[in-house]
Amino acid sequence: MKRAAPLILALLSAGCSGIQSADGRDGIEGALIGNLFDVFLWTTVAVYLCVLGYLAFAVWRGRGHRRAQAGLQGEPQPESERKWRIGLIVFSGATALILAGLTIATWLTDRALAKAELASPIEIEIIGNQWWWEVRYQDPVASRIVRTANELHLPVGRNARITLKSNDVIHSLWVPNLAGKQDLIPGRISDLVLHPQRTGVFRAQCAEFCGLQHAKMALDVTVESEAEFGRWKAAQLAPPPIPTGSEALAGYNLFLNRQCSSCHNVAGTPASGQVAPDLSHVASRRTIAAGTLPTAHAALGAWVADPQAIKPGNNMPKVPLTPAELRAVTAYLETLK
Amino acid sequence: MSSRSRLSILPLTLVLVGCDREARDYRSLALQSHEPANAFGGNAYHLAQGQRLYGWMNCAGCHAHGGGGMGPPLRDDEWRYGGNMEQMVATILDGRPNGMPAFRDRITEDQAWQLATYVRSLSARTRQDMLAGRADEPANVEPPVLDERKPVRRVTPKQDDATEE
Amino acid sequence: MKNGANRWLLAVLAVLILIVVIGAIVLGAPDRRPDPVFGDKADSLAEVPQAASRARSPSWYEAPRENAWTMQLGDPSGSRFSPLSDISAANVNSLEVAFTFDTHNERGHEAAPLVVGDTMFVTTPYPNDVYALDLTTPRPTVKWHYQPVPLHASQGVACCDVVNRGAAYEGGRLFFNTLDGQTIALDTASGGELWRTKLAEINKGETITMAPLVAEGRVLVGTSGGEFGVRGSLTALDAGSGAVVWKAYSTGPDTDVLIGPEFEPFYAQDKGEDLGVHTWNPEGWKIGGGNPWGWISYDPELHMIYYGTGNPGPWNPNQRPGDNKWTAGLFARDVRTGQARWFYQSSPHDLFDYDDVNESILVDMPFHGEMRKVLVRPARTGFFLVIDRETGQVLSADPYAHVNSARRVDLVTGRPEVNPEKMPKPGRVTRNICPAAPGGKDWNPSTFSPRTGLVYIPHLNLCMDEGEVEANYIAGTPFLGADARMFAGPGGHRGVFTAWDPVARRPVWRIREDLPLWSGALATGGDVVFYGTLDGWFKAVDARSGKLLWRHRLSSGIIGMPMTYRGPDGRQYVAIFAGVGGWSGAIVSGALDPADPTSALGFVNAMGDLIHRTEPGGKLYVFALPA
């Protein structure tokens, strides 16, 4: 037990740190809920200590009391009865007051969340699929709409209103550092407002069981300065160039003529499949396959070679490729920055 | 009941519950079997994947939900190019002369078998307990749970179609 | 006391049971009202306009020669009117079959035959054979028979049956298109091939079904394939050599769409640079549709052609945000250079497959006191549009069919006010959208009679439920993203034949038909109007009152266009193709399964009874008065 204690402590606090911190207060919404959490936490700690204290006192006092009463047949004394009654009223009253206070605190937080300032928000649409996220940045000029997958970039200090839709089953978007969960329900449109306050990298997770690979459906969230965000968006709008190196070019031709283009889209090429993640700038993302693997040469190759071994049951089939073809396709994917 | 016998019932129950569970074949091992038709044709997971692919690969665009349109209906007994699984897989992969496109390099071979499994279910050739009551994607039509095969309705006399070369 | 209470209870119970039983009998009783009979009579709604307040043929209009019918719409203004008056309202009821010609082709026959002097030219659906018939013999003989042998695989990328809408004749040459995308010119004397030019690639889902138009030495040909994500284009070929003179795309940058300094659209939303790119999601225009597969009209005075572009791809509008220019709209171009002059989009960010390829009939008509050069068109959206053909301004837009998908067309901005209830939502089915995807009227052309000033519209009364799914693009396969299911609109009749007054902006009379009308119409100088039904009835009605004067049952449903000519023996003949098919008749010509309501892009749900009412089989019927 003694050896297990630090391990248990470490596990318990794992959810409260780093890029996927449930206690994260890096966004206004997250901060509001965090404050409410603090109120609840300290109130209940105080109540708990009081109760424990009284229990200890009662146990300590009760030892003498029992010995004294052992010989008597219990008959209630009017005086102690009055004391009991007062005590009960006081404690019930205090409990009611505390609960009312917590309710009011919750209501105030809810109100603040609902009234979250929506001046010139960035409009984003996230569509949940099994088991990846499609992310679209809306724009009044249709040709400036950015379509990407499994990554979300936000400028710090600005509102983002995210419209949530689903193409198949119920998912839920949860960016622990920034805000609470919001479901993506097929046939309905819900929304989530984020107002990040701190730059950094965060990890979001699907929070509603959605099938075989629900556990490997993460979203990479990057909060950056306004200028960097603008640069990223502009880079997303520019189609990747056709590769010139011979291996990458061979991979490009394979991509177009084999199964890849049936599902995936790469801007600037005839590959216009819509049902799988957009790969136009896949090499510039930090992770692939919805946060399953880092974007590194070996990982890309392993994923293309056998996605079913890494994420069994996901909708990308194992495409039979010779080793040379695999190297070519991987080389091509790495040019898609 | 003694606690020992109570303990032994628990693993027994767990084992029994796991008995009838169908194996999900993600690695397409069925392709390597002697009888892929049976391995794919009797597997509900492959049928469900076939149902998903039927929409994704635009089969529904020509064949609707089995009723046909640009392509012939798939719910009846008439198969111009053969109705068993191997023939259907060949139709899907290689295409056919009168307009069926070839999907050989657009889907993998196991996906073609999954599609053939689903197409067979449209004409009531698969076990009823394999049919998905509902697909994962929201559907605009009721699930095709045909319990008896439709008779062939031949209104158009056989015309001068291209023959196999 | 207890007994009394019990008695009251029993009485109340008995009364309740009596009410329920009576109600069940009354409500469950079969409807004894007689079924309405459609197609037999016309509802009279207004007066035929007086001469002064009537639309008339354009000032440059010349009636076609009596012994010739050289283009599908009859003349460049698109009127489908013949001044021949031997057959009149008085004697049409004695019309009889003069001869027939069997094409031995079981698909949908949408074309009309052409006649030049002694010879009749007949085109068929895939495999697009052409016959020349000698009209001087009592039973016409085949002078020559040309077989273009199009690619078999083209049958797989034809959305709405493997139809062909006919040929065009000019200067001893016959021009027509094949399903696999070739335009062919034949020498009419010998049937020899003069040239053929390939304009479409079937592996990308491109086909050609439309009838070409010949104007100023150019043969104008538009592609089909809006259901396949094909980027549409209209090409002008040199009539002598078949070389490409100009090619105008329907989406993309201005240089591809031939939008230049001459382009002066009337409405603000059509002004801007590269709108064919910026009103689409990135690269959406490359697979954006806009195929001009319908009718082209020509004004020789202004040197302008008018044609509409088809639906944007995919059907699912959420995948292509923006107005999706230049799809689902009407272009006016200079026929010599192809440069666009103006454009009007009848369905911006189209939600319901409202292609804008219907015919534009060029007329001159009084508008607010002064004569204007306009074009009139019953659009797919269900609105009858009157548009100034010099500027592109919409003068009036009134519903000629039942419409709930849009409330009205705002004449200041030109935009239809889309009904938000009918907008498609992802993951849900939107119910009862009127008109359905084929619109208030599909491709089948109406006719204009300058004698009455009325436009005679054979059209539809269909509504639909539509649900969206995600569309995936794979070249050569359908790019749709929607399931539809059509059914009869209010009233229960699926087709309507309307006589519309474009000046007064209202119908004059209307015939309700049981089945959708998919045939063209013909108006003649004898004040007779001809059209055909999907179960094979070829009808002649009075041009002024709509009264049914004559009808004849043909061997197959009618989706063709009637035409008339004076034969070598001096008699007037009326010709029409029987041969059910097309989008509405696909359930018969394709042997589709009525148990799946989404078949044939939803049409099968509305046409289950057609399989019992007609059979496929192409046959040309030619009628005349008894000798």
Defining key terms:
heterotrimer, A: 337 residues, Immunoglobulin-like, 3 domains, 5-stranded mixed beta sheet, 9 helices, C: mainly beta, Methanol Dehydrogenase, Chain A, 5-stranded antiparallel beta sheet, globular
User: What is the fourth-level CATH superfamily of the domain at 36-137 and 146-151 in chain B?
Assistant: Cytochrome c-like domain
- The Cα radius of gyration of chain A reads 28 Å
Order of helices and strands of chain B: HHHHHH
Portion in helices of chain B: 25-40%
Could you name the CATH class of the largest domain in chain A? Mainly Beta
Strand content of chain A: 15-25%
Portion of residues within helices of chain A: 40-55%
Low-confidence runs of at least 5 consecutive residues of chain A? none
Total number of helices of chain B: 6
Q: Based on the structure given, which CATH architecture of the largest domain in chain A is correct?
A: Sandwich
Elements of chain A, N to C (H/E)? HHHEEEEEEEEEEHHHEEHHH
Based on CA atoms alone, the radius of gyration of chain B comes out at: 20 Å
Query: What's the count of strands of chain A?
Result: 12
Structural category of chain A is alpha+beta
Q: Judging by the overall fold, what is the CATH architecture of the domain at 36-137 and 146-151 in chain B?
A: Orthogonal Bundle
Range of strand content of chain B: under 5%
What CATH calls the topology of the largest domain in chain A is Immunoglobulin-like
Largest interface: B-C, 40 and 45 residues
Approximate shape of chain B: elongated
Discrete helix count of chain A: 9
Walkthrough of the structure:
The complex is a heterotrimer of chains A (337), B (165) and C (627). Chain A has 337 residues and is α+β, with helices and mostly antiparallel strands. Chain A is built from nine helices and twelve strands. Helices cover 42% and strands 18% of the residues of chain A. In chain A, helix 2 (28-69) runs antiparallel to helix 3 (78-114), helix 5 crosses helix 9 and helix 7 crosses helix 9. Chain B has a domain at 36-137 and 146-151: Cytochrome Bc1 Complex, Chain D, domain 2 (Orthogonal Bundle). Chain B has six helices and no strands. Chain C has one domain (85-624): Methanol Dehydrogenase, Chain A (8 Propeller), CATH 2.140.10. The mean pLDDT of chain C is 95. At the A-B interface, helix 6 of A face helix 6 of B.
